[in-house]
């Protein structure tokens, strides 16, 4: 996919989000909840973050997509995730797995593999997390074996689905100096999946939007604190001109 066509498609998909306000139900870690909800709102989507075992099924019942993030797992959280994924799969709505810190504990790794067996549409993690999950396979082989899209973020974001691969180098080092940028990125992917006919294109659009917003934010901030706010402002202000001027694809 060329940079110009990615920018054009991302702008069109973001317009759809701003018109439709899809609701993304997020089972995410306590560190990332507020920033993730704000990033979704800044893009034009609607977040819901309820994570209780008692209510999660009702919330996913009316949602357009689901995010499952393993950042601060505990047993009730694991149960809520199993219930939420059950509803998402029954309804056929896409869900995204963010395997935060999967390499840090064997229990988390086992749980991540349990969830992966239930068919996430997208797995988005940083390079270390994706390398751990793919156990030394090339990530395109990993994606093909799962029938999922795999996104490995970092200095360059890499996206594969087994047949296609794209690298998006947009972004800024300050994105690595604020917590939950990756968690929010996975939520943006979930949002874009709800409006994209081609999920690969939706994922690429989310990663481009995040990277371009990061570049714009860096020009309007003086460090991580102001960067986080400027990032939300930049997501809110994204348009086809900004995306087209800055989009890079490798
Ligand atoms: N050095 C960098 N240059 C450009 N973009 C970056 C850089 N570091 C991170 N990013 C961007 O930041 C976002 C988050 O990616 P990262 O790989 O840091 O996620 P993460 O480790 O899962 O973060 P977290 O767990 O804190 O939410 C992505 O959009 C990525 O492109
Ligand atoms: C810092 C941190 N610890 C658990 S989750 C999280 C947010 C980044 O993934
Ligand atoms: Mg992460």
TrEMBL record:
Which cofactor does the UniProt annotation name? Mg(2+)
Enzyme class (EC, first level): transferase
> What pathway is this protein said to act in by its record?
Cofactor biosynthesis; thiamine diphosphate biosynthesis; 4-methyl-5-(2-phosphoethyl)-thiazole from 5-(2-hydroxyethyl)-4-methylthiazole: step 1/1
GO biological process terms on file: thiamine biosynthetic process; thiamine diphosphate biosynthetic process
Residues reported in the UniProt entry to bind ATP:
124, 153
Keywords, in A-Z order: ATP-binding, Kinase, Magnesium, Metal-binding, Nucleotide-binding, Thiamine biosynthesis, Transferase
- Report a single Gene Ontology molecular function: hydroxyethylthiazole kinase activity
Pfam families according to UniProt: HK
Indicate which residues the UniProt annotation says bind substrate.
Answer: 49, 180
Q: Does the keyword Nucleotide-binding apply?
A: yes
Among InterPro entries, the record links this protein to: Hyethyz_kinase, Ribokinase-like
Protein name from the UniProt record: Hydroxyethylthiazole kinase
> Where does this protein come from, organism-wise?
Phreatobacter aquaticus
Gene that encodes it: thiM
């Amino acid at each position: 996919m060329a940079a110009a066509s990615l920018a054009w498609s991302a702008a069109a998909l973001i317009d759809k989000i701003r018109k439709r306000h899809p609701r993304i139900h997020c089972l995410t870690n306590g560190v990332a909840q507020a920033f993730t909800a704000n990033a979704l709102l800044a893009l034009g989507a609607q977040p819901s973050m309820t994570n209780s075992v008692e209510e999660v099924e009702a919330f996913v019942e009316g949602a357009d997509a689901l995010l499952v993030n393993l950042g601060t797992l505990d047993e009730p959280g694991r149960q809520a995730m199993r219930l939420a994924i059950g509803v998402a799969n029954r309804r056929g709505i896409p869900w995204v797995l963010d395997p935060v810190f999967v390499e840090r504990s064997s229990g988390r790794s086992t749980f991540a593999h349990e969830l992966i067996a239930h068919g996430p549409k997208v797995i988005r993690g940083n390079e270390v997390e994706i390398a751990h999950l793919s156990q030394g396979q090339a990530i395109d082989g990993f994606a093909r074996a799962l029938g999922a899209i795999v996104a490995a973020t970092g200095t360059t974001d890499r996206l594969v689905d087994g047949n296609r691969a794209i690298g998006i180098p947009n972004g800024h080092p300050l994105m690595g100096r604020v917590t939950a940028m990756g968690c929010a990125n996975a939520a943006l992917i979930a949002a874009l999946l709800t409006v994209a006919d081609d999920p690969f294109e939706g994922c690429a659009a989310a990663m481009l939007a995040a990277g371009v917003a990061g570049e714009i934010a860096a020009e309007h901030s003086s460090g991580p604190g102001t960067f986080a706010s400027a990032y939300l402002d930049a997501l809110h202000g994204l348009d086809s001109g900004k995306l087209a001027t800055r989009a890079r694809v490798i």
